[in-house]
Amino acid sequence: MAVRVQREDFDPGAEIAALTAGNTAVGGLAVFVGLVREMAENRQLSAMTLEHYPGMTEKMLERIEAEAKERWPLEASLIIHRHGRLEPGERIVLVAAASPHRDAAFDACRFLIDWLKTQAPFWKLEEDSKGTGTWVEARESDEEAAGRWQ
Amino acid sequence: MAVRVQREDFDPGAEIAALTAGNTAVGGLAVFVGLVREMAENRQLSAMTLEHYPGMTEKMLERIEAEAKERWPLEASLIIHRHGRLEPGERIVLVAAASPHRDAAFDACRFLIDWLKTQAPFWKLEEDSKGTGTWVEARESDEEAAGRWQ
Amino acid sequence: MRLLYFAWLKQKTGVTEEEVELPGEVTKVSELLDWLAGRGEGYAEALANRKTIRVAVNQEYARADDPVKDGDEVALFPPVTGG
Amino acid sequence: MRLLYFAWLKQKTGVTEEEVELPGEVTKVSELLDWLAGRGEGYAEALANRKTIRVAVNQEYARADDPVKDGDEVALFPPVTGG
């Protein structure tokens, strides 16, 4: 169980290898990686800046992870979320869950990202080719996705 | 879109990096890795041997992948499945789906592994510490999981 | 009380962080927002639509009726959009 | 016809692969299984419980009533357990 909020990039391969290394109770590992897209709702982006609330962010991510561990039999889990300015193609977030069983790994992984999206204090500022910044509005579909787990 | 059936191990990090490299349309990448567990239904395993039907296996995996591509807006997908003798902790299978949207990536990834488990001609022979081999029986829960996508 | 502003709330108020002394009649979140809105044009604009504002008291999500007091760390921000 | 056997069907029949010439009355999957079951003890045992047997004709899943003919590649195996 680990949570990291960082400016720098991460290596998904190394992270997921470390997550299950030497643990022969793991039958399934589900991973989600979120990346910066070049197009957002038909606008071309040159970059995105992620602001966050240091302290509360880590606290919320740890709580989300603890909640996942309560709900599913997890052998390991990981949340990494970057902040600062990121360009299209860059990694933003990684969530992973490892369990003896595949359904638990999938459900927990999806829960982690769904809850993160509605609970963790991050805000995205999209920057278009002219350098104009627009704060991304929260999507109802994210609330609905998080609602799946109530 | 790619399918590989192979004896040798694979590198999940390198595979998923290659899957989205240079593709700034990808917003989410979902990955599942299946591993050999040491315990199966309370029996201690020393190894597992995966037999398959060369030719038909690739054909079925390609069909499953094509079906996923029909159903979800995928930018990339990958199925790698190993065969031969594998010990606890070794990787068996990787399925991955990349899409502009997270829900599509998750759904497609889960569909790939659910259908693979009921459609692709692989058979597991479990080997206990005395070297006794037991063919794994198909699980109803796998049929049900695949049924989700009907 | 320590106040923190994030995303467009920071831009509209022009403030990242400030220390304020609460008037005695401000005892809950909704009263705090009302009081802040009266502190100037930037604040009034930032707080115009309460539906788009989330509040955390001591790093916990809080509702309109939740209590606030001197010494608290209170953060104001829009609905989150990470991930 | 080329016959392939996998997993415990291979162990029980003792055969991985064989070429057979079909009697004229064998025209569908169920008839093929009946005919094979009469070819010896290992076959009879392997084919005793049809519910546990899957058949692929030319690498496509087939049902009891699907046709078979000389020249086909027919595989017999238990329900799959990969992934």
TrEMBL record, chains A, B:
The keyword Phosphoprotein does not apply. The chain crosses the membrane at residues 16-36. Keywords: Membrane, Molybdenum cofactor biosynthesis, Transmembrane, Transmembrane helix. It catalyses: 2 [molybdopterin-synthase sulfur-carrier protein]-C-terminal-Gly-aminoethanethioate + cyclic pyranopterin phosphate + H2O = molybdopterin + 2 [molybdopterin-synthase sulfur-carrier protein]-C-terminal Gly-Gly + 2 H(+). SUPFAM superfamilies: Molybdopterin synthase subunit MoaE. It comes from the Bacteria. Pathway: Cofactor biosynthesis; molybdopterin biosynthesis. Its EC number is 2.8.1.12. Coiled coil: none annotated. CDD domains: MoaE (cd00756). The keyword Iron does not apply. Heterotetramer of 2 MoaD subunits and 2 MoaE subunits. Also stable as homodimer. The enzyme changes between these two forms during catalysis. Belongs to the MoaE family. Converts molybdopterin precursor Z into molybdopterin. This requires the incorporation of two sulfur atoms into precursor Z to generate a dithiolene group. The sulfur is provided by MoaD. This is Molybdopterin synthase catalytic subunit. It comes from Aquibaculum arenosum.
Automatic annotation (TrEMBL), chains C, D:
This is Molybdopterin synthase sulfur carrier subunit. It comes from the Bacteria. PANTHER family: MOLYBDOPTERIN SYNTHASE SULFUR CARRIER SUBUNIT (PTHR33359:SF1). Belongs to the MoaD family. Pfam families: ThiS. The lineage of its organism: Bacteria, Pseudomonadati, Pseudomonadota, Alphaproteobacteria, Rhodospirillales. It comes from Aquibaculum arenosum. Keywords: Nucleotide-binding.
